[in-house]
Inverse folding.
């Protein structure tokens, strides 16, 4: 059987990846909406980005409203800011929440309505140019055609899954992950591991997704404990950033299975951090799936 394989149009990895991305970003448009959270501003990660945009004379507006797992209100507010400020492309910087939110905001900007109407729907119009800059090694959202948004009216974590959600450019610069504290490093690392394991064991897996899934698992086993205990190890951080990217590519193409299927409602109903809920479920779910 034939399989279609999706990856971002451009992936830039390694030290100084942000600087290399500028030649692409200057062609994206005149003004970016930077989708992020307050912690990214406090840690200085957003300033690294805005300094880089200043160097190429690209304007920007910062929308720091994604301060928890994203919900429909945050997305609709982001759309209003994008329109009001006259933005013409988007940059998401942060963990999976800002990256998912950036993609969801872009979808509504291009297609109208409210994000609450998008669950399970095909996205008709192309998003404005999008750039995803992860600051954790976990969600892989920089390389997926997926966005998870909580509908707080129905208490459902909405799954948006469409090739148009794939970021135009993914910038995996490990310098941004150096600020992640141990508990975030652990939770997001287990999320990346779960993506890779589920992609490999999925019935939708195929040879290309397996290549990325197996590579991610190996990198995570070799580096996760090290970055948890020694967060200043740049080489280990780089390996984990690459592993998260590989895990995102793997599950975006092969799908996840029952772990994420159960993890999403736990997050929506009990507000358990996503990586932690995966960790709670992984062992028992793998035993269940083994037959």
């Amino acid at each position: 059987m034939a399989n279609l394989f999706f990856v971002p149009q451009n992936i830039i990895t390694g030290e100084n990846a942000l600087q290399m991305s500028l030649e692409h970003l200057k062609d994206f448009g005149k003004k970016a909406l930077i989708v992020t959270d307050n912690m990214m501003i406090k840690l200085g990660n957003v300033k690294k980005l805005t300094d880089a945009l200043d160097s190429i004379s690209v304007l920007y507006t910062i929308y720091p409203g994604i301060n928890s797992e994203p919900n429909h209100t945050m997305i609709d507010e982001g759309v209003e800011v994008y329109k009001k400020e006259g933005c013409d492309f988007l940059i998401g910087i942060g963990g999976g929440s800002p990256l998912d939110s950036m993609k969801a905001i872009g979808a509504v900007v291009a297609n109208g309505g409210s994000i609450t109407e998008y669950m399970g729907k095909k996205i008709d119009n192309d998003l404005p140019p999008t750039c995803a800059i992860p600051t954790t090694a976990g969600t892989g959202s920089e390389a997926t055609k997926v966005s998870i948004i909580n509908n707080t009216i129905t208490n459902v974590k909405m799954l948006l899954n469409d090739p148009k959600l794939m970021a135009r450019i993914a910038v995996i610069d490990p310098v941004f992950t150096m600020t992640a504290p141990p508990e975030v490093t652990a939770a997001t690392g287990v999320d990346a591991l779960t993506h890779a394991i589920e992609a490999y064991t999925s019935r939708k897996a195929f040879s290309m997704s397996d290549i990325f899934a197996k590579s991610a698992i190996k990198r995570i086993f070799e580096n996760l404990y090290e970055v948890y205990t020694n967060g200043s190890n740049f080489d280990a951080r780089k390996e984990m950033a690459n592993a998260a990217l590989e895990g995102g590519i793997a599950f975006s193409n092969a799908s996840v299975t029952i772990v994420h299927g159960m993890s999403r409602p736990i997050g929506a109903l009990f507000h358990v951090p996503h990586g932690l809920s995966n960790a709670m479920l992984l062992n028992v779910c793998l035993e269940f799936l083994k037959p």
About this structure: The two ends are 24 Å apart (CA to CA).
